[in-house]
Amino acid sequence: MASPEARRSPACGPADSFAERRARMVETQICARGVQDPRVLAAMARVPREAFVPELTRQLAYDDSPLPIGCDQTISQPYIVAVMIEALQLKGGERVLEIGAGSGYAAAVLAEIAGTVVTIERVAALAERARTTLADLSIRNVEVREGDGSRGCRERAPFDAIVVAAGGPQVPDSLKAQLATGGRLVMPVGADQLTQKLVRVTRAADGQFVTEDLTDVRFVPLIGAEGWSAADVEPTGAPQ
Ligand code: SAM
């Protein structure tokens, strides 16, 4: 993993001003709203979000909101990233699968805690940019793959944790099948494409899946064989 020095902000503003904003973001947007896991807070305090947003909006990197990253997609609000990663209950060293790499930011946060992260992105240009950004930051324990992640990644399964950063009509069976015993999957699920419930599915020792509702969220759609069909996707404004 890269040293904090190696992960300094890009040369588009004073590095400590981004560092100060990042520290403030953790305190006011994340801690203050109840995220407590010290691993998640430390990871959010280390990863430079400004490196994952387009140059034109870099000054907004620590705003309390999702931001456009091109190709009609967004980098999620920092608080939601923290909530989803905390819900995975990572202790360190796990094998994690993320669906919806987008900018690569959440994968970078996951990589601070987990052993290895595989992240899948269906939009080729985003996958390529995420790969470049992660390489520039010397983050070496993330593999960015391009394709339909709604079917998961059988050749790297099982995973201790799976996080889906896009909303689907149900939890894909393929993803459930790729969870290790005791593994957790966190995903936005909704019968329409406008709003979802964030759910956590745990694979119990007896092979049963236990589902918990966590909170209401609004994500871009999961488009793929076990998500929404691309032809049915409706414009949804500016969700996560
Ligand atoms: N985690 C991202 C980050 O940190 O920037 C934000 C993800 S964005 C909210 C959701 C992403 O899911 C989009 O980039 C979208 O292209 C991607 N996506 C949607 N359906 C997908 C699928 N079936 N497989 C892989 N990626 C998908």
TrEMBL record:
Q: Which GO terms describe its biological process?
A: methylation; protein repair
So which domain of life are we looking at? Bacteria
Give the active-site positions.
Answer: S76
Please verify whether the record's keywords include Zinc-finger.
no
Subcellular location(s): the record lists: Cytoplasm
Please give the InterPro entries that the UniProt record associates with this protein: PCMT, SAM-dependent_MTases_sf
Q: Which UniProt keywords apply?
A: Cytoplasm, Methyltransferase, S-adenosyl-L-methionine, Transferase
Top enzyme class, one word, equals transferase
The UniProt record lists the EC number as: 2.1.1.77
Chief place where the protein resides: cytoplasm
* Classification via Pfam families: PCMT (PF01135)
Q: GO cellular-component terms in the record?
A: cytoplasm
Q: Which GO terms describe its molecular function?
A: protein-L-isoaspartate (D-aspartate) O-methyltransferase activity
Query: In its keyword annotation, does this UniProt entry include Cytoplasm?
Result: yes
Role summary: Catalyzes the methyl esterification of L-isoaspartyl residues in peptides and proteins that result from spontaneous decomposition of normal L-aspartyl and L-asparaginyl residues. It plays a role in the repair and/or degradation of damaged proteins.
Q: Which family does it belong to?
A: Belongs to the methyltransferase superfamily. L-isoaspartyl/D-aspartyl protein methyltransferase family.
Give the protein name, as stated in the record. Answer: Protein-L-isoaspartate O-methyltransferase
Q: Give the organism, scientific name.
A: Rhodopseudomonas palustris
